[in-house]
Design brief:
Strand content: under 5%
Strand order of the largest sheet: 1-2
Number of helices: 9
Distance between the termini: 34 Å
Structural class: mainly alpha
Number of domains: 2
Order of helices and strands: HHHHHHHHEEH
Number of strands: 2
């Protein structure tokens, strides 16, 4: 990377923040929108961004006055609204999944299905029990909702009706049942 040639200590912290958001935040946009980046790559990239932000270089570290995960947070959470590369990668991948499911007759979707088969549209992937979003099955992260679902072995395709999510709950969903899910995530 060419960051080592930058004299980060000659830039103000605002200048480094601008460079991180505009350049380092968009370097891998194509790769991150098509492929899930390995955790080690994301950690290395975050390390480079943090080192540059604090004014260090490849040979010398500078004092980090605030933990990098806090800096990544949004303004309302006390951060500088830089955003995590891992979250960015997952959001870009979800955008393609959403497009695939909401536009099943688009030409590019038909090409993907013809090339890769029908697995891409959720005809073989179980909604709750297979890993298709994140790093764990959804039933482990949303256990209370999983237990309220009447069809625990449903496929992704079973949950989509006319481009909208369709549910089959055993009873009404109360805010108190969902709230702990958001608190623990």
């Amino acid at each position: 990377m060419r960051l080592s040639s930058w004299k980060a200590n000659l830039l103000s912290i605002g200048g480094r923040l601008t460079l991180i958001k505009s350049v380092l935040g968009s370097l891998g946009i194509y790769y991150l929108s098509i492929f899930r980046a390995p955790e080690s790559v994301l950690q290395d990239l975050e390390r480079i961004r943090a080192k540059f932000f604090w004014g260090g270089n490849k040979d010398k570290n500078k004092m980090a006055w605030v933990k990098w995960p806090i800096i990544l947070n949004s303004f309302d959470k006390g951060g500088l609204n830089i955003g995590s590369l891992k979250a960015f990668n997952l959001a870009l991948l979800q955008k393609w999944r959403w497009r695939l499911l909401s536009s099943p007759n688009a030409l590019w979707v038909q090409v993907i299905k013809a090339y890769h088969g029908q697995e891409g549209c959720g005809t073989r992937i179980r909604f709750w029990k297979d890993i298709w979003v994140g790093e764990t099955p959804l039933f482990t992260r949303y256990n209370r909702l999983y237990h309220l679902d009447q069809d625990k072995d449903c496929l992704i395709i079973d949950r989509i009706n006319n481009g909208q999510w369709s549910w089959n709950w055993s009873g009404p969903i109360l805010v108190l049942e969902i709230l702990p899910i958001y608190v623990t995530c």
